[in-house]
Design a protein that fits this description.
- It catalyses: tRNA(Ala) + L-alanine + ATP = L-alanyl-tRNA(Ala) + AMP + diphosphate.
- Residues 340-382, 752-786 form a coiled coil.
- The chain is α+β, with helices and mostly antiparallel strands.
- Helix content is 40%, strand content 25%.
- It has 27 helices and 35 strands.
- β19 and β20 form a beta hairpin.
- It is globular.
Length: 918
Amino acid sequence: MSKTVREIAELYTSYFKGKGHTIVPSSSLIPKGDPTLLFTTAGMVQFKPLFTGAVELPYTRAASVQKCVRTTDLEVVGKTERHCTFFEMLGNFSFGDYFKKEAIEYALDFSLNHLHIPKEKIWVTIYLDDDEAKKIWMEAGIPEERIVRLGKKDNFWGPAGDSGACGPCSELYLDRGPEKGGPNCGNNPDCKPGCDCDRYLEYWNLVFNQFNQTVSGELLPLKQTGIDTGSGLERVAMLLQEVDSVYDTDELKSIIRKIEELSGKTYDESTKQSFRVITDHSRSVFFSLGDGIYPDRTGRGYVIRRLIRRASLFARKLGIHEPFLYKLIATLRDLYSVRYPELKDKAKDIESILKKEEELFLHTLEVGLEELESLLSQLKSNGQTLVTGKEGFRLYSTYGFPREMTKELVEDRGFGFDDLGFEAELEKDRDLSRASWKGKKVQYLTGLSASAELKTEFLGYTATKSPAKVIYLFVDGKSVSEANQGSDAVVVLDKTPFYAEGGGQIGDWGYFKKEGFQFQVQDTQKENETFLHLGIILKGKISVGETIEAEIDTTRRQNLANHHSGTHLLNGALRRILGTHVAQKGSIVSSDYLRFDFSHPKALSEEEIISIEKDVNEAVNAKIPVKTEVLDIDTAKQSGALSMFDEKYGSSVRVISMGDKSKEFCGGTHVSNTKEIGYFAIIKEGSPGAGNRRVEAICGDSVIEYFLSQFQTLAAKIETHNLSAKETFGDLKEFGIVSPVPAPEDLQSLFVKQGNAAVEHLRKLREDLETELEEKSGSLFKAKKKKEQLSFQMNPELVDGLLKKAHSFSKGKVVTEVFEAVDAKALKDLADSLKAKEPEILCLFGTRDGDVSTLVFMCNKVLNERGIHCGDLLKETLVMLDGKGGGRPDMAQGGGKKPESLGAALEFALDLSKKKLG
């Protein structure tokens, strides 16, 4: 019965190809056109429009091996035998073709004759009233005593996200024998599928799609019935290879062997949690980076960053104190490039990105863990059991510990964690402006004058790290000779690679290090010729006169250089296209975006924006060397270099030239060749004041992420309003895209093929889609919105539908729902109707209208007495939407951005509620 993972996958696709199925490649981990999902979580996600009839069917039968990521049970990964964040899903699908009979017969035939599972070991479950499925199973040879009826929780599936195809299901189980039963099971005849013990293990789920669930919870008949199946590849391998854990299957075991080789440790009972976490998380990160999901502060990127940091933490338990995960990429490439050949060419880039991200975290991990250990020891000695929000936020802001990671660490040690207090600290931090640092700049230099001995030599044009001598220290605005761990300090060096904020470019971040000492530079400012490094001492102490190693954050510096050079090209393009009257009035160059203010009497037309964007991208694509010269001021002016009219310059100036595209006075950091900028896209145009205009733009990989987000939002609108994208928008082959709305992999491919030209094509495509969508569905939007506003308060069908799908817990019920373009009053009216009918219910409602998200949380006082506080719950949830709001224990309302994250935000709120009502 034993087969390798690869053999099982090949058997599966070969079998269903022989049954007339089109073998469809795995889709991206970024769900196409479904902003309710952070990741692709099931094989059917890419087929959702085919089930609902929203698009023309390219085939009626399909099968796939789909890569998936789920992080709902992240904290237990490594502790159990089967939990993973990354897994592969085998699936066969029918869209109006075959239904229950064939699906059941295929599953049984494949199990018996290809996987060679003994028939007497197979049990099945069916939905409570699905007599049709029972009859088919019995006719196929499964006796009635091995068919178990289960309820909606177990045997009614879907949809994936807030809406889509769903229906009753039937599952196949393998009987692993009474020895796998729980303490009360053994040979107990009442032990059967549905029991919590490990005797019966589900390995295949057959979903009989009959309904389309709308975002309001209404079940409508599908235009055609369908079959959606899912079988976890790793789980099937575990059963066939007769091992107790998915981590003991052949592919995962080979990763574990590599970790043993690299770490010098043995995989055994004492180390297995660390080995399993590293094995699992390395796969999730490998595949996510391969699909263009990069570590970030929010959304999918935040999840990936958290996985990397969690794996680093567990690597440390194996005695590994250096970047490590990236060393597994070659092994992962060799394992998975057979099924996913595109990963072969991406492996080197993935390795590079992962190594940099590990280095970023390892700068502070060890010191942060020491800080946490000290904190917990102090709490224990004081008889305290709670880590406050302030203490947790310090670990986050100073040492880069994600909130969830800190929570997991302290709870493992028996301490509680103040989630609400953490959120309050996060909100305070958001409200602090960087100006507060700048306002203290002069205070820090009290008693010091502009003099030769205070001049800092800047090395950052050619160096990213350098030894340097500490010449002044400031703590609390006062000059000191020594500063200790935990101090917020300002350090002045004799020389530095850190760029101090100026010319619109913000200051560098990074670290100062020497044996037993580490300082995190959180900003770099400048007063006269003195560079101020503002930050916190993470470890040890430092004294004036000592020598340290200063090293900047190179990834951030590269992003700053991309955006600064992009700003120069933008200035040149504006003058060429709008006229030489254009004069720079101000700019901001950050690592995330650029902002440029200039003189111009009117708003830019769409044609002008396209022309400017095209001009810059042509310059990027031309691979122009960036030339730097230091000239005397008169020579520089005569050369035609542009300068800010109100800027003060010395007798000599630095001039940056990019061929005939740009020539400007500038002291900032830049790329060495325009090609390094990657891509350029304008994301906003407006006015900061009379007679001036403002352009915001992005460079590099941010451009790809931006268009992905734009098209996902469009696709969601199309699907939400049941518009046929194929009929609405026609064929888009002229853009090199076959699907009606481009998937993430389509966009990635387009950028690879067309480079910078893809920006212009995608902008035009997006505008065409938006225009046609508005024309074809504008009246539909208005009619639907009006109807919903009028019918929410007294709509018994809607109320009953929501009550039926409410989540039931021991102390109450919770209903979550996302609505399109509904005002907050209508949501409150609906919640009042629900509360009147079910006093013990918590309503978690969200609505999106354009770029705006709104949340309304309501409950009766009976739930307040059980620990629910709507205002507190709302504040925690709004962090996912970059929003603000608040309210009373029984009612709260707030607003934010990120409409694509509304579904995920409500899922987060549901998880928080479950902890109170569970």
